[in-house]
TrEMBL record:
Stored PANTHER family: CHAPERONE SURA
Keyword match Transmembrane: no
Secretion signal, residue range per the UniProt entry: none
EC numbers, comma separated: 5.2.1.8
Organism (species): Runella salmonicolor
Protein name: Peptidylprolyl isomerase
Pfam families from the UniProt entry: Rotamase (PF00639)
Domain PpiC: start-end pairs: 186-286, 289-386
GO molecular function: peptidyl-prolyl cis-trans isomerase activity
SUPFAM superfamilies according to UniProt: FKBP-like, Triger factor/SurA peptide-binding domain-like
Length: 464
């Protein structure tokens, strides 16, 4: 085994896409297993502290990276291993620095990835047939790589959170670009939405409530709460720990959940409590100053059996109000949209990486939204339509086609935000590069002799 020293900033500019590719590689590997692919490639090719990189992981990453290259040069085997090593290094340092991600955030991302798979395969039934596994089993297998992705991203954000960009830095960067080399900006659009979530039907709510009351009665008769949570809770993260959520500070949990928890005495059970994630049976274990320790059993509604009448009624009314121009779209969105991520911005959708409201009008956009805009005029709104959110919830929404920016050569005036993001990304790359050079001293890295010819991060592999 060999040791490598990591300090090449070229990796950092592709870190986010690497993390996403890792999860897609996991999905692909799950599918390969379901189709009977040999797993004899599970040889350890690298180790970063307590994290291991298997040859199968490296192979699957290469396949996914090549499929996503879109005409650009795909990474070599050495470059792919380099990116996986740096990702594991972020995880190792995050563990040292106690950087964590909450279970509810992980579960939200798991639901979003499963929704992506459902759209890709056409239905959950097709997913089950393709992989030969239940949806819950697939969610369980996805959870760990998604958790690692989120922790690595959070670690990177921690490293760069204090970095800012000044207007003078942006102007200096723009002036440094030769006029004949200014980038060509493709068409972009600004889109707003007003979202209303479907409601759980009374019959479904009563069914979930009855199941939780049954579990409560069984615990009160002496049955073990942890066993029931492990068997029945649909919060897969905490279910593995018997429903245990650990200590939480006030304000960290959903208000309904926290309020119900703090009304309980130690070891007391709540009535079924409804939140945006489903219905919970909560048991308070102990309190410690401003913290409390609880566990729960979560049952989620079947999003295919939701009641669409309430959101349709509200959106039909809002559509008529906006059409007659008695209220502006942005004001209506702030007041009525149930999508917290866009409501405060007047319903505007934003790029998750840059935070910009200008979205590229290309294949990267949701296909259904892309086709809808093709039939709309700028300044118009759509009729209410069914919608599945990124985290798998059933909803309806109205779309507002706010503006379209035609393709053009970049200018300081029109593309200041985009140029600012480039400068910010460059400064973050430099900051993370410095961090890597320092952090390498705290992390143990070994690489299999097979890759001793690789030049990792510009540094030749050396003997340990």
């Amino acid at each position: 085994m060999k040791r490598t020293f990591i300090q090449n900033p070229s990796y950092l500019s592709v870190l986010r896409s690497t993390l996403a590719t890792l999860v897609l590689a996991c999905i692909a590997f799950m599918g390969a297993q379901g189709q009977g692919k040999s797993t004899s490639l599970n040889k350890v090719v690298a180790r970063v502290d307590n994290y291991y990189i298997l040859r199968s992981e490296l192979e699957e990453y290469m396949i996914q990276a090549q499929s996503q290259a879109q005409g650009q040069q795909a990474p070599t085997m050495c470059q792919a291993l380099e990116r996986l090593i740096v990702n594991k290094m972020l995880l190792a340092k995050a563990e040292i620095d106690s950087v964590i991600v909450e279970d509810k955030q992980i579960e939200s991302q798991v639901a979003a990835r499963m929704d992506y798979m459902a759209k890709r395969f056409g239905s959950e039934k097709n997913i089950i047939e393709a992989y030969g596994k239940s949806i819950e089993a697939l969610k369980y297998e996805l959870r760990e790589p998604i958790k690692q992705e989120m922790i690595a991203e959070k670690m990177q954000s921690k490293i760069t959170e204090a970095i800012k960009v000044t207007p003078n830095e942006v102007k200096k960067f723009f002036n440094s670009i030769p006029k004949d080399s200014l980038p060509y900006i493709p068409a972009e659009v600004e889109i707003g939405q007003i979202v209303r979530y479907a409601k759980v039907t009374k019959a479904q709510n009563d069914e979930l409530r009855a199941r939780l009351l049954d579990y409560k009665a069984r615990v009160e008769k002496g049955e073990d709460f942890t066993s029931l949570a492990s068997a029945y809770s649909e919060d897969l993260g905490s279910a593995q720990r018997g429903g245990d959520l650990g200590f939480a500070k006030r304000g960290e949990m959903l208000p309904e959940f926290e309020g119900a928890s703090l009304k309980l005495k130690p070891n007391e059970l709540s009535e079924p409590i409804e939140t945006e994630y489903g219905l919970h049976l909560i048991q308070l274990l102990e309190t410690r100053g401003a913290e409390y320790h609880a566990r729960h059993i979560l049952l989620r509604p079947d999003y295919n059996r939701m009641d669409m009448s309430a959101p349709k009624k509200v959106l039909d009314s809002l559509y008529n109000v906006i059409k007659t121009d008695t209220l502006k779209f942005e004001k209506v969105a702030k007041t009525w949209s149930e999508d917290k991520s866009t409501a405060d911005a007047g319903g505007l959708l934003k790029d998750q990486q840059s935070g910009s409201s200008r979205l590229p009008l290309d294949a990267s956009m949701d296909y259904g939204l892309f086709m809808m805009l093709d039939t709309m005029k700028v300044g118009t709104i759509s009729a209410p339509m069914n919608y599945r959110t990124d985290d798998g919830k059933t909803a309806m929404r109205i779309i507002y086609y706010k503006s379209k920016i035609e393709p053009h050569t970049a200018s300081l005036k029109d593309d200041f935000e985009k140029l600012s993001n480039i400068v910010l990304a460059n400064k973050k790359t430099e900051a993370v590069d410095k961090w890597f050079k320092k952090a390498i001293e705290d992390v143990f890295i070994k690489v299999d002799p097979e890759f001793q010819g690789c030049k990792m991060m510009g540094i030749n592999l050396q003997d340990n």
